[in-house]
Structures are given as C-alpha cells and as structure tokens.
Amino acid sequence: MISFDRVSKRYAEGHDALREVSVEIARDELVFLTGHSGAGKSTMLRMIMLMERPTRGQVLVDGQNLAGVSARGIPRHRRSIGVVFQNHRLLYDRPVFDNVALPLIIAGYDHREVGRRVRAALDKVGLLSRERAMPVTLSGGEQQRVGIARAVVGKPRILLADEPTGNLDPALSAEIMQLFEEFNQVGVTVLIASHDLALISRLRHRIITLRHGRLVSGAAA
Amino acid sequence: MSLWRSGASGVAQGARREGASQSRTGWRDLYHAWLRHHRLSAADSMQRVLDNPVSSAMTWLVIGIALALPSGLNVALDNISQLSASWDSPAQISLFLHDEVSDERARELQTELSARADVSVSRFVSREEALEEFRSLSGFADVLSSLQANPLPHLIVVAPAQDSDQLAAAGLRAELEAYPDVAQAVLDMEWLQRLNSLMMLGRRLVWAVAGLLILGVLLILGNTIRLAIESRREEIVIVKLVGGSNAFVRRPFLYTGLWYGVGGGLFAGLLVGASLWFLQDTVAELARLYQSDFRLRGLGIMGGLNLIILGGMLGLAGAWLAVSRHLADIQPR
Ligand SMILES: Nc1ncnc2c1ncn2[C@@H]1O[C@H](COP(=O)(O)OP(=O)(O)O)[C@@H](O)[C@H]1O
Ligand SMILES: [Mg+2]
Q1: Which of A118, A181, B127, B329 shows a CA-CA span of 20 to 30 A to A200?
Q2: Are B172 and B164 in contact (CB under 8 A)?
Q3: Which tens digits make up the pLDDT trace of A34-90?
Q4: Which of A9, A41, A43, A55 to mutate to test the pocket of ligand 1 (most atoms within 8 A of CB)?
Q5: By residue range, what is the domain housing residue B166?
Q6: Looking at this predicted complex, what is its ipTM?
Q7: CATH number for B182
Q8: Backbone dihedral region of A28: left (phi > 0), alpha (psi from -120 to 50 degrees) or beta?
C-alpha cells in the first residue's frame, strides 16, 4: 500500500533527514514508526501526503508513484489519506461537528450525507454528545479524538498519525491506540509515528525504527 | 463561519448521493458538489461580511465614495448637455457696422441680406434704438447720458436659414464679415461651442478620475481581502492539509470581494441619488426663474444597476488579485 524505495531527503539547509530508506507497508497493516526526535519520522509521513518531495528515490502509495502527482493533483491525493496530527490542528472557531465535516464538505457531499457520516465518526470516537461543543472546551484527549474522527470520516484507505499520543497520559494513549487498531481491523492501512516505545512495544505490530534518517529495523513484515 | 459551513441548513440541497464513494463520483455529482460549495461559500462570505457590520460598512462607504465621484460627475455632465441641447434657439449672427455707415445704407444692407437664400430673418437695430434699449436695461442711464456721442454701432441681427447647421452658420458668419460695411460679425453660438468643448474636457477628466479611483478601489479591495486571508491563515493550512484544492480555498474570498464590491456599488448609487435629491429643489427653483421646464435627471434604474455590476466586477477583480498573490504562499508546514 505504501512503499519507500531508497528514499533520501535533504532539506534546504543541507541536513539529511532521510538516507536511502526502503520500506514496504502492506494493505491492512498497522505499522509503528519510531526513533528519537529528529530521526525523520515526520518527514516520512509528510512525504506520503506530499507535503515534501524526496530528494532521491521514490514513494509509491496504492500503486501510484507520487513523483507523477502534480501540484494540481495533490488535493485529490490528500483526500484519499486520513491524517492525525500531534497538535490536533483543529479549527478553534468552529464546533466539533464542523471540524469533523471538513473533509466531506471539501469532497462535496450534500448536508444530509455529511450529517450522517459525521455522527457515525463521532460515535466511533465516543464524542457523539459533544458535536456542538467548541474544541477549546474539550480535554486534550477529546481534541485528539476529534482529530481522529476528522481523519476517518471520509473513509480513507490509509490513516497516518504523527505522535498522536504525544501529550496524553498512558491510559488515554492506550485508548487512542486501541481506536487505531479498530480502524485497522476494518481494513484501513495505519502508519503511526511515535517515540513512546513503552506503549507501542506492548501492542503486537510491526515497528519500523529510524536513527538519524536511516532505517535500522522493521523494513519488512 | 469558515471556508465552508456545514451547519448552514438553509442551503438548498442538490442531488443526494447515497453512500457514494469517491470512485463512483460522476460528472453530475461533481457539478452538484461544485454548485453546493458555491452556495456555501456565497452564504458564508456574506455572513462574515455581516458579522462585522462596522468594518464592512466602512469598506462599502470607501468603495461607494470612490465610485460615486465619477458617476456623479457623469450625471452632472449629462444634465448639462441635456440643458444645452434644449437651447435649440438657432444660431444668431450679430453684424456690427462701421461707424460711418449711414442709416439708409444700413437698411439697404438689411434688405439685401434678407434676400439671401441662407438667411431666414434679419432685423435692423439702429444705433439710437440700441442706445435706448441699453439705457433702459442696463441701469447705466446716468453714465450714458453724460457721454458726448453715442458709442454704439448700427447692428443687424441675422438668423441663418432653418436647415443650416453649426458649420454652415460659421461659414455664413465669415462671408458676412467680408462685407465692406460690416466691422465685425459675431456668431452667438460661440458660447455654446465653448460649453461643448468644456464638456468634452469634463468627460475626459471624468474618465481620468474614474480610472484613478477604480485603481484605488482595486487596491483597497485587494488589501481588505489580503487581511482576510491573513487572519485565516491557519484555517487555510488545515483545509489544504485535508485535501482542499486551491479553487476551494479561493472561492469564499472571491465571494467576499464580490459582496464588498456589490455593497460598494449600492452605496455609490445611494450617494449619487442622495446628492441629486439634495440639489433638486434648488435646480427646480432656478429652472422656474428661467422659465425652463428643465428637470434634473438621475442615474436611472440602469445606471444604478450598472454601478452595482461595476462594483461587483471590481470586487471580484480585487479579490482575484489578492488571492492569486497571497494564497499560493500559504502551504502546510
Ligand atoms: N522543513 C525543514 N527544514 C529543515 N530541516 C528540517 C525540516 N523539517 C525537519 N527538518 C530536520 O530533519 C530532521 C528530521 O525531522 P523530522 O522528520 O521532523 O523528525 P522526527 O519527526 O523524527 O522528530 C530533523 O533534524 C529536523 O531538524
Ligand atoms: Mg516529528
């Protein structure tokens, strides 16, 4: 589903964030991406959603070489991927419902369908009763679940998460990880960047480890 | 209120798609989705404009004044040209004779001129009659009676034939001035011609002023939209992150520009209308004094509509300028 073929990334300042990274992630897999801060985890996720392009090498998503996706094609590509961010990136002047509805509005669903899907997604993350709440009135864990609902509401086949439990206590983190596992069980390919080794090693999934931009373990299932 | 507003239940519904997946999206659905977002953006942008009544009214007023100025001047010029066209008194040519020309010779000349085909009427005013008339009209009676001799010349007033235009009248004037008895021939239309050329100058000035002000309106709108974009930078980033296209992000800002422009055009129409209304009584009074049935003519429905359309187009253009300059810079990091 996602494949990196000897991908290197050098940022403009001359810093090598990724060096010759090759990895395959199969359909239906849930994979953790770990490594110290600055190891290159976010860079890999950003490449999958075309926020960055590789300096060398190729990234393929669902069989498509991302080098062939032009700037005009980026929005459509991003719509096929759900993303969860560490700092949530919610619209803080909009209620929960509108935040979750955003991908559907962009995709052009009519408002009845939007309502149905948003409620289904909110139900899934346990926030159905908070649809009219403003994000600031929610706890960090709840905000993160709003972010997850927004990521899955469009039924993407790939779900990316960058440090989704970064600011949460262990119990909440475990709950969030369980949510991701549930999505994975219904066929979504999930890739989660996290440096919380204690948490992710308890869950029985493949772990890809990066060190200074090099892949050191977990290249194949 | 954001780039979209899902809660807007008042928005009419397009075709519903039941459990449609992206891959099954047909042209019809795309069209409906596009239309739906237009409606959402239009309503949402309007809502945002109305949510800030003071700053929006300021923007409308600034644009309104800038559009009202050239438009008002244009209406004024239209009125003046209507007025000068209603002065359809045929041209008159006044022939001032040399001092040494006698009464009899002057009357002979008048008869002679009357016989010409290109002259319809002529009238002789002797220097004595002229003096008398002048004395009774001008209030200079005392000054005049203290004069030793009559300073006024004989005068023959000639009206060109009915069918002669300004050019023919000017030609006739030149011919008549060539008569040996005639000291000077004056075409009384000259003030009208001068008025007309002044009006032409006026119209050019209006165009120049309009050009400058329209440029100003574009810049104001561009700047307003730029600020709107700036204040929603984070929102734009998020929308782009979850797959919003440039067109999707652009749309609400274009509508914002449109609403500012349309409102500005409306304000301009109101301003012009109000000033005309303000002048109306004075003009009517003046017209009555001059026994004219002249009435001030306003913008009219079409003129008002044109102002609003012009405002709307300027709004779109200004927004487009701002959006094309600033939106591409905002990329998710
Ligand atoms: N936009 C950028 N410009 C320059 N350097 C960057 C940029 N983004 C990340 N880096 C650098 O690339 C390296 C990898 O960063 P990142 O992928 O964010 O690591 P991680 O997510 O594992 O902490 C870091 O050293 C970071 O400083
Ligand atoms: Mg990171």
Answers
A1: A118
A2: yes
A3: 999 889 999 999 999 999 999 999 999 999 999 999 989 999 999 999 999 988 899
A4: A43
A5: 93-188
A6: 0.92
A7: 3.30.70.3040
A8: left
